[in-house]
Every structure is written in structure tokens, then in C-alpha cells.
Amino acid sequence: MNVSTSRDRLWQKRLNELSAVWPDFMSGRTTGLHKTRVASRRIREALPIVAVAAPPDKVKKLDKRMRSLTRTLGPIRELDVELALLEDRAASDGSSGRALEIVRREIASRRQALRKELEDDAPISDLKKLLKKLERVAGGKGTKPRGHKAARRIEVEWRGVLAARLMRRAKRVGAALEDAGPLYAPDRLHAVRISTKKLRYALEIARDAGAAGVAPLLKVLKRHQERLGHLHDLQMLLKHVRETETSPGAGSRMNEFAAYADSLERECRRLHAVFVDHRGELTTVVKQIRQQVVPALTTPPRRQAHVPARERSSDHARVRAK
Prior knowledge:
Blueprint: H1 3-26, H2 30-50, H3 56-93, H4 97-120, H5 127-137, H6 148-180, H7 186-208, H8 215-245, H9 254-298, H10 309-321
Helix pairs in contact: 1-2, 1-5, 2-3, 2-6, 2-7, 3-4, 3-8, 6-7, 6-9, 7-8, 8-9
């Protein structure tokens, strides 16, 4: 594999993802907002790796732009998910329509306010201009390193940065798991979720760079990220239900709010129990990344000695004869 072009491909892939979902985001679609946020996270994870030879101040400015986009969309995305959860649970568990409607209106009002702020003060006004800057800072079109030695040097550098980043991400997941332990502590579980997500995005870069044996590890990370993500979404909804329960608008429906909050709490506890039962899978992934994936990224590929074609054919014939 030409590792220099693998760097170019993995970077262009992430820029293309953002460009592809941008129209849906601009049209106000919920799925477009979610995909835009994910694409921005993937770009942020890859930026310091592919732009290893760029001036640090330029990389920092671009990271700030992408971070602003990610953080602006985060609260809106959480409210979108909560509204979807309310609809799903209302249809499945027969909860009081009136109590849920009060919660839904409160969440929808917050979401509408955030959407209005986004329209009035968009974090990115010209996507094409930003994408061109991202291309250039990572050595995109027209800025390829000249000569084999220069290309090789940059290759070693960016793979080294990727390896160091993967090691750091893996250590943080391990530390978060140890800190969380078997107890139900939402803040600590949130730390496990965030560190797992960041490790997944870093490992995706290693996969796109040609690292072997990464696909099964990514599946485990994605499974745990989604499980912990659903748990976090339920916790945020539970928080809003309890806030609404104590508000003047709750009226005489206190018992309905309490019952709904209890059902959410039970579901959170159930998901936590599943996480505890399978948390060893994350520990195994962390170990494999540290002991196998990271060393492979920093080990230069063996250069085969030049053997004339005629001699290679003779060698192959002798092997088959044996």
C-alpha cells in the first residue's frame, strides 16, 4: 500500500462525508444535523494526524472552527433524541399522553430556541471555503511533498502521531472503566462513553490507514458506544421529566410524572447492568490496541530485496515441486 496516498484518501473521505450531509443539515433535517455532527468529530480527530507537517497555528484555528460546529450542534441533537424517545415510549408502554405532552412541549420549546440561535449565528457560513482550507492544511491538492525521502518522512511522522493518539485514547478508556467500576454513577458512565467514542474515531483512522485486524475491535467499540449512548439519552430525558414534574405546569399529574420517571430509572439501571456484564470486552479491546495496533503503526514495512523476475519464477517452481 502507498501509505502517503492512504493518508490523502482517509482525509478526503472525511471531508467528503461532511460535504455530502451538509445540504440535509442546512435544510433543517434532524438526520442531517446528526450526521453533520458526526462528520465534524471525525474531521477533528484526523486533523492533527494528517496535518502533521502544517503550521500549528493554522491547525489550531481550523480545529477551533470544527469544535465550534460540534459543540453548537450537540445540545440540539440531544433534544432531538429525547423527542424521539418520548414518541417511542408513548407508543410502547402506554404512558399518560397528557403528562408526556407536557414534557414534550417543554423539550420542543428548548429545541426551537436553539435552532433559532443556530440560524442567527451559524458556526460555519461558507463550507466550500472551509473545506479548501482543510485540504490545504493537510497537504492536499497541489501541495504534495517533493521526493521519496520527503514523502517517507511525512509518512513516518503522521503514523507516529496516529499511534500516540491511539495509545492515549486507549489509556483514557481504561482509566474511565476503572473509575466507573460496577456502581451506577451517571457522570462516570458518561466519561466511559465519551472516551470510547473518541477511541473509535481514532481507530477508524488506523483502519483507513491499512492497519490489520481492526474491524472486530471497531464493532465492539460501536456496540458499547451505542449502548452507553442510549443510556445517556434516557438519563437526559429522565432529568427533564423530573424538572417538569416540579414545575407549576405539572398540576395534578404528579403521580403520572413520578411513574414515568420510575420507568425511565429502571430502564437506565437495566442498561447499566448489561454494560457491567460486558465491560470486559472494552478492556480486551484496549489491551489489543495497545499491544498490537499501536506497535504495527510505528513498525516500518519490510522492504523486499530486489529479485529478478526469472529468479523469482524459478524459486516458485521449486516451492511447488516440494
